[in-house]
Amino acid sequence: MATPDPELTAVILTYNEAAHIAACIESLGWADRILVFDRYSDDDTVALATATGVEVAQELFQDFAQQRNAALDYLETEWVFFVDADERGSPTLASEIRGLIADCPEAGWYVPRHNYIFDKLTLGAGWYPDYQLRLFRHGRVLYERPVHEVAVVDGGIGYLQNPLVHLNYRDPAHFHAKQRSYTQYDATVLLEQGIRPKFYTPFTQPIRQFWWRFWQLKGYGDGFHGLRLSLYMAYYEWLKYRNLARLQRQARL
Prior knowledge:
Layout lengths: L7 E7 L6 H7 L5 E6 L6 H8 L2 E4 L5 H11 L4 E6 L2 E2 L2 H11 L6 E4 L1 E5 L2 E2 L10 E6 L3 E4 L5 E4 L3 E3 L4 E4 L4 H21 L8 H16 L6 H30 L1
Parallel strand pairs: 1-2, 1-4, 2-3, 6-12, 7-13
Antiparallel strand pairs: 4-9, 5-13, 6-9, 7-8, 10-11
């Protein structure tokens, strides 16, 4: 008798994702089960998801790690595939995942992403392969850290070949809003780690950041788009260290 295929549940974490949720669900139709795990959206996310017939659950939000752990606690399944609402699966990714979970020793898998920034596929400046640890054997992963959460996996980890499509920053305004929030958080993390930059660090680090993204990570391959993104990230490196200096001054008061 043939062994039945392992059950795979795709989990979509949502908050006000009415613009994306229906297309995301449609792209994951190959999963055995789809769970939309919502943090009480105040738009039409839940109604649109419910209309597709998938399972919807809601959980009060504390932080990103807690939200993923709560989704894992809610489930009974063999494999879990976390997808954000602004991401899309594909037939080739589905085929790869189905093939490997049928008979693989690994407990977790990194998935590459194709990032579309300002509607342009961005392959340089650090946005590809952009591996994300998203596919797990259920019961073998725990998330830690409130923001930029980290998956701690009990077992081996592999790397998939086929990418998720990530409909990333819509426009420069969206990009800047997100990066400003990230730099504030990252400065707090540096402070907690006891990082004490030199007086020149806010000037040297942006230069290093630009060189790293534009030359070493081949941002130049994306032309003006890659140049602009490399300059943007250099600016936010400067802003991060400026925020760190401010936090250090406040801590001394």
